[in-house]
Amino acid sequence: MARPTGEYRGVVVVEGLGSIGSLVSSPWIYALVAVSVLLDIFLPVLPSGVLVITAATAAAAGSGAAAAGRVPQDVPDILVLTLCAATASVIGDFAVYRLAWRGGARLDRAIARSRRLTTAQERLGGALARGGGALVVLARFAPAGRSVVSLVAGAAHRRVREFLPWSALAGLAWAAYSVALGYFGGQWLGATWLATGVSLVALFGAGAGAAFLMRRQPRTTKAS
Description:
The protein has helices spanning 6-17, 28-39, 48-64, 78-101, 104-112, 115-129, 134-141, 145-155, 160-189, 193-223. Helix 3 (48-64) packs across helix 10. The protein is mainly alpha-helical.
């Protein structure tokens, strides 16, 4: 019996990735990714990164099968996937920012009782006042960092033009990085569950690195 070609295996993987839900290999994957990314600012446990990487790996499998003419009709498009995830990220950030803006005295007291939120408020306020929003971009990769930064920026009544452009850059950087991990992981390692797993490790590693750099920033600021 002849062995299946690499292109044929790519098609099988697309179907296999779709086995976690037919949405992965259908246009509905964009809606699922958007909703997950939009809501994970409120519920950081949602697997938005997992969905983005899995869909991008499916796209890699489809592109690998193109030469055989067996690409499924609904393979995710990586550009649309990136824009979808980035847009949802910005909308979620802005929603929390506006809610925190209107939070009033009760929210201010809650922040004052939390050392983490108080420290974040001081650092973020200084960073935005100096015209530098690298902290916003960095926080997008850190666990729950996106939630903290959006909350603090709104509670501190930072102006929209100081926060929103950096939020957009952060969302685009995170989405592009996540899609690239899934797509190129699928290209280099083969569109398999191993490729998805390695890509997820790289995503979580970036999150751990971002959290480490954010913890070190206060000491760096004082030293300067």
